[in-house]
């Protein structure tokens, strides 16, 4: 019995010691580091995007044909109006020659009609004068009634013939206009057998070689205006608020990750990506390399605000965070408490501006310890930002 009593006493003592240790561990003051306000803090928003060109053209011939000449290739800088390529134009040249002949025929037809009109006008004047004399003689009974009527009829016939010839002139002129229009049309189509640069451009690609047949509207060259190259970045809508044209940005190209280039927001897309819930932000780069590669991945950091003074809270220590409100642990009067607060800007480094709700004199721990409990005493470690 004594041995059992001794064993029970030992167990009870061990339990008491263990319980005391647990109690002490759960209630002993914790040592925590607290966040400190920062000054002149830039608020940046991250966006992942690609190098693009605002002016990018896939150009080709309006008509089909066989390539007979190519004067530009990948990487060439071509001024506006420079000849890039030609296709076989022999058939169209024949059409233009035929159209010119039709114009000449129509011009000759007008000359014939105008000559006939002059002849008809002279004959009509003669018949008018003859008829007047005979009508005068008829009044004096110097000619017969039959001769006067015949003269009257001849004048009427001459007048009708003149109207017919004048109508033929109008018809000939209309045919000339039609022939000239056809010539202009065929000449324009002939011009479409030459492909010229629509603007000062860099040739991004060429799709065909000499002798190949190109279809009407098929892209032969891809051209880009170098001065319009910019970065198209996609920014999470939850962080895209307050981004505006003119704000400074930082650009990092995937091929040159060690370099950061200066940029400026040039456009904020009116329409967002409905699937990914991202806003399109276009950034021009002021000192990026002259040699660009369309489609290259780029990282963009837009500075949308600069705070004179702010307390930044890591998102990972916020509970029930909805983008505007949440719960945080604070240290007040040497003890832990948890309370709701409101937040402002979200930074690209995963921290959020504490906007309001923090009592005077209260501090915010840098991390949340598993031992945090309402009312537990804490001691301060050296402050960290």
SSE blueprint and pairings:
Layout: H1 2-27, E1 30-32, E2 38-53, E3 56-59, E4 65-70, E5 77-78, E6 83-87, H2 90-139, H3 145-191, E7 194-196, E8 201-206, E9 213-214, E10 221-224, E11 229-236, E12 248-253, E13 256-268, E14 278-285, E15 297-310, E16 312-314, E17 325-332, E18 335-346, E19 351-356, E20 378-380
Parallel strand pairs: 1-20
Antiparallel strand pairs: 2-11, 2-15, 3-10, 4-6, 4-9, 5-8, 6-7, 8-10, 11-14, 12-13, 12-15, 13-14, 16-19, 17-18, 18-19
Describe what you observe in this structure:
With 385 residues, this protein is of the alpha+beta class. The protein folds into four domains: 27-40 and 309-380, conserved putative lor/sdh protein from methanococcus maripaludis s2 fold, CATH 2.40.420; 45-54 and 227-306, Elongation Factor Tu (Ef-tu), domain 3 (Beta Barrel), CATH 2.40.30.170; 58-88 and 199-209, no CATH class; 90-191. The protein has three helices and 20 strands. The protein has helices at 2-27, 90-139, 145-191, and strands at 30-32, 38-53, 56-59, 65-70, 77-78, 83-87, 194-196, 201-206, 213-214, 221-224, 229-236, 248-253, 256-268, 278-285, 297-310, 312-314, 325-332, 335-346, 351-356, 378-380. The strands form five sheets. A six-stranded antiparallel β-barrel has the order 2-11-14-13-12-15. Strand 17 and strand 18 form a beta hairpin. Helix 2 runs antiparallel to helix 3 (145-191). The longest helix has 50 residues, at 90-139. The chain is elongated, with a radius of gyration of 47 Å. The two termini are 64 Å apart.
């Amino acid at each position: 019995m004594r041995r059992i009593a001794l064993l029970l006493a030992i167990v009870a003592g061990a339990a008491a010691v263990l319980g005391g240790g647990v109690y002490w561990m759960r209630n002993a003051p914790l040592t925590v580091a607290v966040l400190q306000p920062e000054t002149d803090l830039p608020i940046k928003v991250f966006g992942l995007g690609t190098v693009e060109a605002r002016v990018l053209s896939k150009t080709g011939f309006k008509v089909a044909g066989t390539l007979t000449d190519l004067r530009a290739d990948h990487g060439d800088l071509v001024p506006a109006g420079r000849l890039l390529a030609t296709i076989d134009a022999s058939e169209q040249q024949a059409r233009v020659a035929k159209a010119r002949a039709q114009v000449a025929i129509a011009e000759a037809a007008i000359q014939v009609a105008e000559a006939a009109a002059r002849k008809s006008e002279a004959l009509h004047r003669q018949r008018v004068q003859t008829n007047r004399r005979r009508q005068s003689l008829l009044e004096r009974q110097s000619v017969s009634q039959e001769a006067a009527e015949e003269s009257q009829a001849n004048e009427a016939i001459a007048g009708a013939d003149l109207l017919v010839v004048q109508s033929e002139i109008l018809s000939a002129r209309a045919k000339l206009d039609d022939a000239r229009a056809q010539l202009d049309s065929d000449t324009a189509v002939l011009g479409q057998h030459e492909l010229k640069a629509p603007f000062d451009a860099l040739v991004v690609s060429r799709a065909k070689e000499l002798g190949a047949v190109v279809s009407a509207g098929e892209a032969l060259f891809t051209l880009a205006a170098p001065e319009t190259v910019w970065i198209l970045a996609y920014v999470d809508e939850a962080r895209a608020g307050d981004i505006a044209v003119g704000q400074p940005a930082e650009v990092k190209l995937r091929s040159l990750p060690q370099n950061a280039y200066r940029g400026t927001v040039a456009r904020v897309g009116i329409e967002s990506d409905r699937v990914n819930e991202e806003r399109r932000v276009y950034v021009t780069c002021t000192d990026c390399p002259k040699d660009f590669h369309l489609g290259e991945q780029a990282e963009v950091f837009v500075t949308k605000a600069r705070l004179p003074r702010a307390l930044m809270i890591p998102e990972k220590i916020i509970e029930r965070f909805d983008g505007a409100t949440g719960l945080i642990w604070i240290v007040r009067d040497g003890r832990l408490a948890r309370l709701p607060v409101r937040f402002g800007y979200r930074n690209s480094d995963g921290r959020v501006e504490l906007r309001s709700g923090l009592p005077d004199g209260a501090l915010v721990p840098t991390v949340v310890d598993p031992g945090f409990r309402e009312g537990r005493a804490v001691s301060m470690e050296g402050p960290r930002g």
